[in-house]
Amino acid sequence: MKRSSRLRQLMDRSVVLAPGVYNALFAKAVEHTGFDAIYVTGFGTAARYGYPDVGLITQTEMVQNLRHICRATTIPVVADADTGYGNIINVRRTVREYERAGVAGLHLEDQVFPKKCGFMEGKAVIPLEEHTQKIRAALDARTDPDTVIIARTDALAPNGWEDALARARAYREAGADLVFVDGIRTLEELKIYSRELAQKGVPCLYNGGLVTAADAERMGFKIQILAGLALGAVFVSATAAMQELNSSGSTRQTIAQFGPPGEGETVNDILGVPEVYELERRYEASAEEEQAR
Amino acid sequence: MSSPGAQLRDAMANGMVLAPFVYDGFTALVAEGKGAKAVYMTGHGTSAQIGLPDVGLTSMAEMVGNLGYIANAVGVPVIADADTGYGNALNAQRTVREYETAGAAAMHLEDQVFPKRCGFFEGKRCVPLAEHVQKIRAALDARADPDLVIIARTDAVAPNGWEDAIRRAEAYREAGADVVFVDGIRTLDDMDIYTRRLVEQGVPCLYNGQLLPAGDVATRGFKIMITGGGHALSYAAVCQALLELKQGGGGEGRDLERFNEMTSLLGLPEIYELEQRYSTD
Q: Whose C-alpha in A24, A164, B179, B263 is 20 to 30 A from the C-alpha of A33?
């Protein structure tokens, strides 16, 4: 089954919990741990390249990262596509490039280009009508009708709930498969999101960990992403390692603290080193063949 | 301002340079933020983050791409893994030029057969000593900046034993390598041989590992130590977070403090400042 169709099937069943990663190694870890889907964060992808999430990273870099992630995994990948990297023409290309990279779903937001992380200060949004057209362009650009197009609105922080809700409804009406109100900071906000949209038949994505997946399900959400999961874990562990290295000249305690990864799978195992050895044996020139030559 | 290579040479003149393993711009920023004076870009980690094992599948272009991001992100010198130079002496020359342009302060070239494999894997094989001597000479000749530090690595301990490894390290040094690097040091006995037979004979050496704390490695006279958890530690930490989530975790809310620390590290305050400076309002 195509990953896009699989994502739709999963959403029909229950909330899809997608931990956020930004490279192929961590994406493999998500699949290996038994999750149903992977979320690829733009914040993390920007961080990986050494930049804050303020629209400095190009579509090319996002697509390149997605290509590696999709090749390394088999479960559905939901990807951050920021503003689509320009106008409706750019959106069309973005959808096609993301599809070709192998994503099952992607979200497009109504921020002014260049964008900012949904939780940062100083966000600004384009007119509702303009983003509605972008969503239509995205839907039309799909070569796979099952590719899940998620319309994100960043209007909550700059404009308040009324505008955010009006936008979410308009994007859904334009045909978006899901809507995504980003920048939910409190449980109160999450409850409004649930009551006004998710419980009213609008398929919604929630980004954050204010509630568990079981609660997100009860609140009516179709997808829950934890965009910052991998980056947070890396930040905490790498910071601890550096502090230990400074104080004792070693990182052994930090390495022991985070222990061997789940079920004894090492990085080399998960990257397929055993398969490499097997392939080498399989394609080794046999002695007889060499003799014959 | 002095070149990255010159900066690294200055640091080496003042004692051992301790360069933690990093594999992307973010981990490089974390290391620099916590006071690292240099960072080391691992080939194993660069391969891992694009989903590949460290067996010579990752191309030079992919390594250079990653190196560019890391060197842009931090101000400290970057020591970079350049595997075998991705082919023969001519490939090594192009590799040197590309790494230099991308911002490397130092790079190491190893004497494995191409395609290579991680220094700690089974089944390593080496090219003849004379061939790698020529590759080192080619690399030295290719530098635009004479301060770029060329590190000659030998992988000969595992397949050929110490005598061959020492002969190779000496020959590479004689050919002009700035530093030599015997990889695959697994035991303290190995470490003692490395110290006695090369470091104490006046050969500038790099140590890769964590058998001893940095202070002890510096006392032995090594010039560079590359160490740390790198991507394996990150992978373990991510797996731990995933397992907690899988077991019903989450729901603990937002960690605003961590978010702010991360965005500061990534330079968000400077972005806001720049927006003000170039604003038309």
A: B263
